[in-house]
Each structure stands twice: as C-alpha cells, then as structure tokens.
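Hello,

Following up on my earlier ticket. Below are the two sequence lines again, exactly as submitted.
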Amino acid sequence: MYNHNRIEKKWQQYWLENETFKTDVWDFSKPKFYILDMFPYPSGDGLHTGHIEGYTASDALSRMKRMQGYNVLHPMGWDAFGLPAEQYAIKTGNHPDKFTLQNIQVFKRQLIEAGFSYDWSKEVSTSDPSFYKWTQWIFKNLYLDGLAKYADMPVNWCEELGTVLANDEIINGKSERGGYPVVRKNLKQWVIDMPKYADRLLDNLDDLEWPTSTKEIQKNWIGKSVGAKISFDVKGIEEKITVFTTRPDTIFGATFLVLAPEHDLTKHELIKNKKEVSEYLEITQTKSELERTELSKEKTGIKLEGLVAINPFNGKEIPIWISDYVLISYGTGAIMAVPAHDQRDYEFAKKFDIEIIEVIKGGDIAIEAYEKDGQYVNSDFLNSVDNKKDGIELTINKLEELKKGEKAVSYKLREWIFARQRYWGEPVPAIHFEDKIEVLDDSELPLVLPELEDYKPSQKGQSPLEKAKDWVNIEKDGRKGRRETSTMPGSAGSSWYFLRYLDPKNENEIADKKLMEHWLPVDLYLGGDEHAVGHLLYSRMWNNYLYDKGIVPVKEPFKKLFHQGMILGANGEKMSKSKGNVVSPDELIQTYGADSLRIYEMFMGPLESDKPWSDTGAEASRKFLERVYRLYQTIKIEDKPNNNLERVYHQTVMKVTNDYNELKFNTAISQMMIFVNAVYKEGHLPLEYAESFIKLLNPLAPHITEEIWTKILKHNHTIAYEAWPSYDEIKTVSDTYEMVVQVNGKIRGKIDVSMNTSKEEMENLAKEIPNVKSNLEGKQIVKIIIVPNKLVNIVIK
RNA sequence: GCCGGCCUGGCGGAAUGGUAGACGCGCUAGACUCAAAAUCUAGUAAUAGAGAUAUUGUAAGGGUUCAAGUCCCUUGACCGGCACCA
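Thanks for your patience. The regenerated structure is below:
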C-alpha cells in the first residue's frame, strides 16, 4: 500500500515551491505548444468529475510535451462574471463579489489537489478590473468600427431573470439558466453584428481541425441560404414590399404575399380593415416565442384589405396577408407565398381559400405542396428551362434587368444581444448624452463596476446599476450624461481570455505582439461541446475582428478542438443532486488518491464519449497503481538487458506515445497494463525500461511516478523535464508470427512461422495443416489469397 | 421535418477491410490464511462436445469482397443540434 495522501501533498507542494510548471513565454528557442482548457465558472459546487476528465487529458498531454522538449503553455483562469456565477450567488444568499473570490479559492485548491500542472503565474479572472479593462477596450473598438450598435430591435426578454438574453442562451423557448419563459420584445439594446462575419465564420471552418459535429452545428446555426430579394410594387402607393426567397423561379406560382406582424406596412393608412388588423397584431404580440413557433398549431392570419402587390413579370395583382408564421427577424420579414410548392404556404392557402397555381410538374397539388424538382409549367419564359439551377439564374437576371430584384443571401445567425440588465458583469463603457452616445477613451478604462449592496435584478427591465446614482449621472466637458447601466454577457470575457494568458500583467495592450505571433493559435483546445454555438462562435468572431485590426496575428484562435464526453452517474443518467448520483472529486481523491482518479477517468473509455461512472472501476485503477508500486519494490531492477521484454517494451513506448498524442488514453493505459503484466511474468526489469516506464506513466499519474523516480530510482530532481523515451519500430515486431489459414474465409488453422516467409512457403505450410487438409479433401482449389506476414485464404469449390 | 452521431459479452470497452471481444471490472475454481481482506494462479461470448473441434455471433435486413464490427443501401432504437428560416 502506498500512502497517496502523503505522497500527493508532498509533490504538489514541491511543484508549487519550485515553480516547476512556470512557462517562460519569452523562450522562443524551443517549439511551442499552447494547450488550453475551457476555464470554469467558479460555482460554489466546486469541481465535478467532468472537469477532472477534460483537465486530466490536457494535463497529460502537457506533461508529455514538456518531456518531449516543447515549451508548453498550459494556463488556467476563471470565467467569473456572468449569469451562472450571479445566479449561484443569489441562490445561496451571497454577494457575487466576495463569493466569487471564495469559490475561486476552492476551485484552485481542487485543481492543485488533482495534480494539474498549470502555470499559476498566468492565472486570469474575467471579473478582475485589470482583465476586463481589455474586454471593455475591445467593445469600445467594436463600437467605433460600427460592429457594436445600440439599436431598437426585437430581443429575447426573460422576466424571471430580469434581463435580455442572446439566442444561444435560450433552449426551446426557455432560458438556459433556470428554464424560465422568454418572450420577444422590442427594446433599445446593445448588439454585436455577428451576421457581418457570417461568411467568414462559415468559410474558415474548412481550415480548422474540429469535430465534424461541432462544425455542422455552427454551419446550421449560421444557416446561410442563397436566393434572391424581389421587390413588389404595391398598387397606388410609394412603398414597395421586398421579399427574400430561395426559389425566385417559382414566382409565377406566387398567389399572395405574407408580412410578419412587425412589418412596417402593417400600419399603412390605406388599410381598410385597420381594426381587425390591429386586433391580430395585438394577439400575436402577447404570444411567447414558444407559442408562436408551436409547429402543430394551425396557421392564423389576416388579409390586408385595400392594398395589393403587383407581380413584376406579368402585372398580376397579388393579395397581401399578415401572419405570424413569417418572422421579422429573418430575411426581409416578408415572403412571396407559393402554395403549390411550399407546405407552409399550402396550409395557409387551404385554410383561407387562396388560389394555388402549379408551376412545377411532378406532384399532386390537390393533396399537398410539391417541393421537389420537375418541369416548369405556367411560368412564361421559364417553361422551356429544364432545370432548377438555370431557372433560378434566369429569373434573377430578368429581375435585375427590370430593377425589381437581385441575388441575395440570408443567414439565420442574428445579432449577438450584448447587454444584460444585471449587476455581475463588465459595465458597458458608454455614456448616453442628450444628442448622442459616446464610448469611453482608453485612459478612462477600466470602468470599474460600482459596489452595490442590493445587486438583485429588478423586473422592470432596469439594470441594478441604475441605483448607483452617483456613478450613473456624470458630467463630461460640461455636458450632462448618463452612463450605460447594462453590463456585458458572460461570454464577453471568454471571447478573448486565451489571448491574455500570454501576457496577463501587460498594462498597455492585450498582450505583447511578439508573444502573440509566437504562441498563437492555440494548438489544442479542450472542453465540453455545450459551447458549440455560444462561446466557440463568439470567440471566433472577436478573433477574426482583432485579426482585421492587425492586433492578433491569426484569423482563427483554436486550431484544434476536442470535446470530452460527459461522465454520467452509475445509472447511466446525467449526474444531478436530485437524482443522487453525483460523485465528488474531493472524496475520491481522499479515498483513492488523485493519481487513481486521473487514471480511472482516462481508462473509462474514449475521451469523447459519454461514460457511466463505476465505483469498482475507480478502485481497479487504484489497484493498478498499487501493482506498479509493488513492482518497483519487489522486482529486481538491474542495469542489464532482457531480451524477453524488448518487444513489449518498444511496443509500449510506441503505443503510449502515439495514443497520448491522439488523446486515446484508454488504450494507452491498457498497453501499460500489458507491460506491467509482462514484467511480473518475467520477474526481472532492466533499469532502462524501469526508468522509461515511469516516464510513460507520469503524465497520467504524476505523483506516484515522481515518488518512484526519486525514492526508488534514486534521482534527485523532478521527472517533469526528463527526456521522453524513444522506441525502435523494428524491435516492436517479433521474428515469428502466427499465420492464420482460412478455407473460404473460415479459420481452419494457425501455425507459427518466421517473419517474411515467402508466399510459396506460406501456401505449402498452410496445406500441410491437418485440419486444413481434411477441409480441402475432394474439393477443387479455385484461388489462393496470401497476405504476407498475416494469412492464407484458400478458396475452394 | 432537416442536419450530425451512435448501436460489439453480465458491465466499461478493444479491433490500418485480414484471428471479434485486447485491457479492465465482475463472476467461477484453486493457492496463501485459523478465517477474512489483500495478493497470486487458472478459467470466463453462446450452443454442442471430456477434448480436438464444429456451428452461431458486433441493432435488423440486403449488397460489394477471397475476406465485413469495419465499405455501400434500406429499416429500427437511442443521443445531440436546428426547427414556420421562406
């Protein structure tokens, strides 16, 4: 039995005292490796098993890379501002300010006790003024460059949380935090113009080594559609109605237009049925987002009497309707409805008895809309065109000639709603003067969050900062103004924190340019997949923007991305307090030790999969480490070679090295187990192998290996920078192998032969095996397939 | 509805188109022990057989191939994302 508590404490202290893992970022003499973890928000719950999982993986890779001679940057910090941290504080009756600091202390202790090799001299916290000075500075620049705007627009309002929310913070019409209802509301709000970067965020994905699923999620979220904008004249008035459509070629089937309820024209004075229209608008406005998008519900709408649109090609009059199935936030907020070839328009037309004109043959429009390809009919100049692509192109060309339309793209990606009417965030560094808005000068940053006793959200849409009257009302150059009282969302600080680790104390810029040039991009970014459309999109956008400004030298911040899977409870369900299936890292470290916990979480299965927890499995990892420790105490370690172990040793070095690089820790561990089993069987261990094996195990079990390295192998300093073992690929293969003999693909025999036996010899040996012989009896050999150094397959008839 | 992923023993899982089940857990038997734990040894996909061996077997069905867990098609279950996006 080894005493994990004593050994682990001792080495954790040693690493801290000796600053073993402090990175000299200015040392450019070695190849760099920047390996980044998604930093946690410091809730009072402390670390959970999922944190340990991802952080162990990145830590193991960091430790190997150091031993391989890389200058490794492996930092950690705190996503300390934002809704999660603030909600947690409110829930537990604490002030977020001190509470956050307290929680950070707990997290840091836990990370140290797990044996992670972070360089704590690079620690950052998003709620620290010296950090958020630069968050505000980036915002200021976004504003000056027209990418941050104060605009009147429909936003997501959550009454319960007392704030607006971004689209990625809403799941199925409810707030991600707390699951409260969210409604659409028109409000003046700070937004960041994500759509402006939509194309680049899409195109750059091709160059990133990211999981395909994450790329797909981002592609879907950006939701690029190519089509056309078509402008319809409205009879008798100046205003036109512009619609966006991906199928301009179906325009001869457009039998009505539909406007979103929020569309400007719904308030036009020539509308005859104003009363009914405003009644309809009122009903739709009180609906929550969830109700409005209920798919199962029947379509509703109302016809605008007194206004008709004109088809630009044939002058046909087209009625105009309002319906909430058209969204103001997508395209132009108006569509041309082609009921014959769009199911939604079809349902609407059926319900309100509107004409349905078939323009593409192939379906039966008496039953349903036909949305596939086919020959054009009833379509004037398009009737002779035989495919969709040409039809669309020709239509757009004609529209352009008539000056009635043009090619257009539309995105689902919307503005990032950037303000929160909450206390715990970076103050937006802007002042509202009577005539205009101004952002603060660099010299006025950071704009420090005022201390407030009562920081709780109000339900009237006002920020708690309104209460800090002295702070809000200011006079500048003789003009009276009011500070913006909204704060920034949680994702603000996390959109650029990876830059700050390079140079966390720099007071003059985000980070020294030379450092950014050397260290960026992040070589490997590890974290959960729940940030696929939030943080991972925002930070890409900010980085692209900073690249455009010449501040950051790379377009994309994270070259390679990896998501660890979730660790589930033993019952296969997500760990949660209410289900009572949560396991606590503190307890596990106390019982089994950090090394055991690390080994177990890496051995459970592939890093990327969700895996259920098992108590016996955690115990088994402890037993493996015991077995290793016992091996070094009981087996004879001598400075002389052992041919019986040579092959398995080289195989182990090769497999462990390759698997670590690919984050396949489960198979690396099983190979180390195979090696240990082989050594026990042999009863003897050459010194070279003994030392190398401890190096191989060190990244996953750093404490026990440091102990063995110094106490048993008698070295007088840390193993952290010892050279990583090398292997000889030739020595990984034996000189004999088990040749498999198949008859018609079924195994009929196996025989040991020497490597590189000739094909003829292989065939002859195969035919001599009794069981093969009897299978061949009386049969005709059709073909013999020989795979050198592997197998013989005899095909018979 | 659209997009992506996944499905292998009792369990976690392993398998560059070439011996399915590595490694570990659990279980069974044995050694050690007064006994237990720990440790060690052997066994452990199913069916039949004392055994050699044979047959079946990677969600279901089909296909390609000398050879399929792996490639292709169809279907199903589960997980995730988006969803009245024109």
